[in-house]
Amino acid sequence: MPNLGGPELIIVLLIFVLLFGAKKLPDLGSSVGRSIKNFKKGVGEGRTDEDRTDEDEEASPPRVDAPPATQSSRDLQ
Predict the structure, then answer these.
(1) Domain edges within the chain
(2) What is the pTM of this model?
(3) How far apart are the first and last CA of the chain?
(4) pLDDT of residue 33
């Protein structure tokens, strides 16, 4: 993939201005920034939750689930 130089970036910026308008670009930039911030925050929270569950699993003994209870035909009548 070729590197983007100065003229290419100017062309891309002009296309954005034509598509969205000069008044909408600051709103678009701030919403993208908030989205990235929220995404990074969510990823960080997910990692801490996973770390906590890993620590909980190591500290507690493994659970053994009981087999499901079955009903006989006499119990159903």
Answers:
(1) 12-46
(2) 0.45
(3) 73
(4) 94
